Amino acid sequence: LRVLALLILLAVLGVGIFLATFDADRYRPLLVNKLQEAVGRPVTLERLSLGWSNGIAVQLRNLAILEQAPAAAGEPLVQIESASALVRLGPLLRKEAQVSSVVLSRPQIRLARDTQGGLNVLGLVALAGPASGVGGTPVSFNIGSFRVEDGTLHWTDALTSTPPDLWLKRVDCVV
After folding, report:
1. What does pTM read for this prediction?
2. Candidate from 19-23, 26-30, 138-142 with smallest mean pLDDT
């Protein structure tokens, strides 16, 4: 029983040391590259970090998905001040991705319809598709809760004669 307790203590200590010394930000260029491939648009990310909070805590700072059209250069399509996810450790060891929670802090989304009736978010449909892991095998990805804090939605419609400029601010929701 003491040996088992010592092994558990060493494992917890090892995970703690790993998370304290691991520099996740060095993988930021790889993540940005993969996100750009997935959405087909330029992506910027200021910081990527790992931590511990009853699971592995992943945090992204200042994530932005940019428009490709030069006319929309002023405002990103999606901009998130902070995105954090809490990944359960046990299922991860069984090669299953179970996320306890995802929190988006101060996301800003710009939806626009052009003069031909096309929406600027159609290229983001790739994000809703199935994820594939190593070798192209599908990855099971479960999220326990999803929360948006202080979000903003900006809608413009160039298809109408007097284009509206609508804002929905201070959006908070939990799914």
Report:
1. 0.76
2. 138-142
